[in-house]
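Notebook p. 47: complex prediction with aspartic acid.
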Amino acid sequence: MMAPGIIVHGGAWSIPENLLQPHRDGCKAAVLRGWQVLQAGGSAIEAIEAAIITMEDDVTFDAGRGSFLNLDGQVELDAGMMDGATLAAGAVAAVHRVRNPISLAKQVMASEHILIVGPGATRFAEKVGMPLCAEEDLVIERELELWRKLQNKGPGYTDVLFGRKDLATVGAVAIDQAGNIAAGTSTGGSPNKWPGRVGDVPQVGSGFYADNVGGGGSCTGWGEGIMRINMAKYAVDLMTAGQPASEAAKGAVKLLADKLQGVGGIILIDREGRTGQSYTTEHMAYAYMNGRMAEPVVAV
Ligand code: ASP
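Predicted complex, structure tokens below:
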């Protein structure tokens, strides 16, 4: 029997002082939720779904309710997950009116599709019996205020990405008692993004990847860069070649910096169950837990 473990992230970037504690609390709650699932004998997929739902429901993070708004002032969400035992994957992009896009990604994973986008994704949610909410249910006052400010600047989301960004994407990677590894990521994307803009998060190999042979990973940071180096798959390839999670994480963010002068972060679990994380932004909120620990490590 494998020793189970889980690592989560609550996004990269420059988290301001007043939001540091909410990021720690949110990551801790998520990692403990996922850990509970693993301890009860749940699968890695079930554990990452539970952890990510916890963060999607927490307005601290740029995922689910409380996400950044797009140019039209709406929450438009991306999420994806992968099962390292079978290489099954599922994702949704630019989806509206879904509270927990990670669960919709799981439904897509169970279908014959991999990625469903836009109105088609909302329709798919209806088809599988997932309740839809109103557009406004996902919008909070803090984000409306930011959106109003950004309207003077136009749809300049790339400027915003390199400036201060207060909250970010969430993700989780877990290994269960059977030694199966799963990874997933969920986001509202970048502030004031062009409607339909999709980053790395729902793309297999970019925002997430899992293969029991090497390990699993979930990314955060500059999506337009992460996509071009397939960062999650690159990190898993390093682990497949024998690098521990800690080294592979450093290698992945280094590639982003070397090739594209890009910044970001990554969390990993290798096939031995070791966790690793690395980031080149000012902060990355993360937490991890396994059977050898009495308490999760939480950092930001
Ligand atoms: N990578 C995400 C995106 O490009 C943003 C983030 O991680 O903060 O949508």
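Notes: The chain has one domain: 5-299. Residues 11-12, 168-169, 187, 189-190, 199-201, 220-221, 223 surround aspartic acid (CB under 6 Å).
Next step: compare against the earlier run before touching the bench.
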